[in-house]
Amino acid sequence: MPEPQLFAAWTASILEKVHGAFADVVEKEGRIVAVLGAHEDVDVQAHCQPDGVVSLKGLAVSGFRIVHLPRVWDDPERRKAEKDPHDEFDRLARTFKTTLDEGTKSVSELATWIQYSPPAAGAKPIEPWFEGLPEDGDNDGGPETIN
Asked: Could you give phi then psi for residue 110, rounded to 5 degrees?
């Protein structure tokens, strides 16, 4: 698990991106009159091995956005008055895809930060978890990719 300072900076950057994608509040005269989108904090899932080593297992952020749907589709006059939801669905899908792509990139950056951050004081070294990783510092100095 990363040190709190590292994890806090990463979490703040994720929540900023998520807030832009999910949060939508309507205010009138300084009062909230509608919440059309919101999100929760980052949920971290971890795994503890029998030897006490804790590893990151998963990350999740829950949220919602409200999409207004027409009330009456079979009335031609009402259909003209109601807004077509296709543009709103398209915008919502593009927002979610962009946010998911940014989140995936951020998780990759977190993995790099964890890999190259110095260990906590008093931490015991562990064996590499993946075959083929250098054990004695015999590498080319570049980031590693595991496919």
From this structure: -60, -45
7/113 Cα distance (integer angstroms): 9
Alpha-carbon distance values, 143 to 3, 7, 116, 135 (Å): 20, 20, 9, 15
Residue owning tokens 């999910």? 22
Could you count the other beta carbons within 10 Å of the beta carbon of residue 56?
A: 16
pTM beyond 0.70: the answer is no
pLDDT tens digits along 9-19: 888 888 888 88
Q: Give residue for tokens 């004081």.
A: 121
Nearest to 111 by CA among 34, 15, 7: 7
